[in-house]
Amino acid sequence: MIAPVFVDSNVLVYARDPRDAAKQSRAAYWVSHLWKERLGRASAQVLYEYYVTVTRKLRPRVTSEDAWDDVKSFLAWRPQAIDEALLQRAREIEQRYRLSWWDSMVVAAAQLQDCALLLSEDLQDGTAFGGVTVRSPFTLAVEELRARYEVASTAQPHPPRGRPRRKGR
Question: Which phi and psi angles does 119 have, rounded to 5°?
Fold first, then answer.
């Protein structure tokens, strides 16, 4: 089984941004793959950032109707809500790793959703935050996903109950 993959807002924006065709193609391919495999995850913060960026900062701008349609579709990824658990985890991450508050929120959301991978161009490629590894969608090939980020079973067999048998009996 492959673990879920958390997608940062910059990846979603690149998938909509025609100004860099190579990045747009690569980001769109990742998003498409995650849809097909049902592995994509996001957070309310990521969807908020995506909406604001594509409707206000991107050139050409995406209409609010089209951006909202995108956001509605990403709700299927079960976005992490901004709640007490997220805020507590983000604070721990901010203190431990000295990340910005916004980056701490993204890493915390990825952790809370049991993601093994966080696709982002904003954090250092290859950095691990607990069980979450940051990878740039522009350096990691989709084909590497299964080989590198497959979830290994960590279940250990339980020893038999009761007293151990003595040898010779």
Answer: -85, 115
Cα–Cα dist 156/169, whole Å: 28
DSSP 42: -
d(CA 48, CA 84): 18
The pTM score is 0.85
The answer to whether residues 8 and 106 touch, using CB atoms and an 8 Å cutoff, is yes
Q: Which two tokens stand for residue 169?
A: 């009996």
Q: Please check whether the domain covering 5-148 is classified as CATH 3.40.50.1010.
A: yes
Q: What is the pLDDT of residues 122-169, one digit of tens each?
A: 999 999 999 999 999 999 988 776 655 555 444 445 455 555 556 665
**For the chain, domain boundaries:** 5-148
